[in-house]
Amino acid sequence: YKEMGLLDEAIGALQKAARAPGRPLRALEALGQCFLDRDEPVLALASLDGVARELEAGRGADDASAVGVCYLVASACERVGRLDDARRWYVRVLALDYSFRDAAARLASLPAPD
What we know:
The radius of gyration is 14 Å and the shape is globular. It is built from 6 helices and no strands. 66% of the residues lie in helices and 0% in strands. It is an all-alpha fold.
């Protein structure tokens, strides 16, 4: 659905997949991306919240397999003005994979912390 631009249908299917036992990480990542594609960063954060908390607590998926989720959380935080959180998540992305998407440029573009 997502590749065809049918984001509403993709979101429904991904939400169902994300509720499956084990909460598939790829489904959550794709769901967060769909919400960002729809310019709904608050919903992206809400959908990624559980896995983000697990990552912060050192539980759940290992960081290497969740680098995409970390990036999406950073991007959503940036869009809603939570710049300190965005900075922290971008740093985490870069620590895992310095060449991941445009994380280095996005981090550099954030204003310096207060």
